[in-house]
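Here is one chain, start to finish.
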Amino acid sequence: MDLCHVPANREKGWYLALMAPNVKGPNYAWLDPSRLYCHPQGLQDCVADLLQPFQGDPIDMVAGIDAMGFILGAAAAAVLQKGFLAIRKAGHLCVQTLAQPYTDYSGRGKVMEVRTDAISQGLRILLVDQWVETGGTMRAAIQLVEQLGGVVAGVAAICIEDSEGGRWIRERYKCAHCVPPRLQPRFDCHQ
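Its structure:
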């Protein structure tokens, strides 16, 4: 798809066609949204769709999850005119941090961390990542925010799959994603 072309009918999720399938094997996500981020209107519409359910909600800060969640999270923070907090893989922050172990979508054990001086009691945080597949990464981010006294105002991702972890998150937090209901089964089956 032409990175400058904008379709006449821009229904929710039109930009999902910009994503490219994985060609690197099972240790990588099945779709790569980085081409979507290169398309100016696609990125704007994606962020607008992610933020639409939170219109009028009190949000104090946006946190993006390492690494691709930084792109959507920072874009969402800019639109909302809020600060942005990076939730990092362990070892990348040179300040005092709180760490949380988790298992990612590929089954690998990892550790995520967040700076301890950015979240105060009751601060309402919108958590953003590019994808919620098994939910392990997002659950670790949720735990970090809540352990520091923050409140998860919502969870936003291009796709929140209908996995056990995805359902756990949807049952407990307000969520937004970009996949229209008619396409959700295809994304859950990685087609």
